[in-house]
Write a structure and sequence with these properties.
The chain is mainly alpha-helical. The chain has helices at about 5-15, 35-55, 60-70, 115-125, 130-145, 150-170, 175-195, 200-225, 235-245, 250-260, 265-295, 310-325, 330-355, 360-380, 385-395, 400-410, 415-465, and strands at about 80, 85-90, 100-105. A three-stranded antiparallel sheet has the order 1-2-3, covered by helices on one side. It is elongated.
Amino acid sequence: MFASPHRQLLTSVRRMLHTDPSAVAHTEPMPVIDERTIPRVLDLATRIGESMFAVGASAHDVTLAIIRVCDAYNLRGVQVDVTYNSITVSFHLSGEVWPETLVRVVRVTAPDHAKLQRVQALVASIEAGLDLEAARTTFRAIRRVPFRYQQPVIVVARALLAVGVSIMLGASPLIVGLTFIAALCAALTQAGLAKIRVPLFFSQIAGGFVTTIAAVVVSALGAAGIEPFIGIRPSIIVASGIVLMLSGLTVVGAAQDAIDGFALTAGGRILDLTMQTLGVVVGILAGLELGGVLGFTMDLPGGPSPFGPPLSLFAGATIVAVAVAVFNGAGIGIILVSALLSAVTLVGYSGALAVNLHPAAASAIGALLASFIGMLIARSLHVPSVAVTTAAIVPLVPGYLVFQGLLEMVNAVGSSHGVLAAGGSLIDAAIIGIGLASGASLGLYLGTPVRATLASVARTRARVRR
């Protein structure tokens, strides 16, 4: 008998709305894997993830790298859990055996983008068919590679970062020189404290204190009528020092982890970032209070410090980006890309300001452009785009607004109106910082599918040529 038209129509509608349970396979193919190989693959993947996370990669990049390594050696379906200080990787071959699980504690070190670049290149080689033993040997060699630059180079690079900020703010040659000396003293102080393993929070206090004392001394010399310190802006010294001490914070990484859903990791990074920032604030306030006790005070700035002429702006931003890339251990390729992206950031920022956007929105647009282009360029460098994006957005860190708010707070003791004004400056600085992090994160997300499309097109062309 034939089914009625109504029943056929009902069956067709049901098929359109519901899945057919009988169409689902009751079994799935399982790769044939030597059980002795599983722990070796998991160990390699976990160590690769640990090394990436320790030198500045985001939790998403670490998780993706571990999965890529395991997939390359037929360990599909691994479970990866990345927290702020540990990585757990588990693989269950079948329901008849216990899962193989590895846990490694991550000891976060200073960013090392050159090592990150080598590890990413190794992951790409593993996907291309590198033998397991050869991959393990290569990784052991990468782990033994020391930091690219000697300590004196890092100290000088950090001082030059402050110089770049002062040039961006249109400082005179005298202020630029004084900024270099103050920043060099702060960098040497922090390097000395790091050698004796003083916690970074207290190191940030010491750096902020040294920079502020230098600015207070310059202000006192100008107030005393001593040439050539009359009429100069010592506040630029502290503003440049603030950018120096905040440049190493993982703002973009924390924002990216939060958006990716790694709440625990993002929370840990944000708390760490907050404590380090508070360290700088405490050091600056201590320096200002000590100057006030000794009778040396600093005048409040008349308003937000404008950037200098375009040539000074781009020259200073380039110096800042190169300096950040150097003390993050980058090679010449990442350094050049960082310098290029800093110019892109400023172009986007200046263009947004030209149409009367808020500085926070302009900062977000500049960071978005830099991170989007950085995502596309980073593919050929085998390095997470955060390595080239971080250096590019540091020139827009609102160091001057932070110092202005702190100085207003010190001078407004006992006045509720002054405290509110100081809070406004600090809130503006925080909003700009959030704009930078948000713009950089959005650029990474917009660039990811474009990069994947370009990679697919490149693979297709390669197959056609072969």
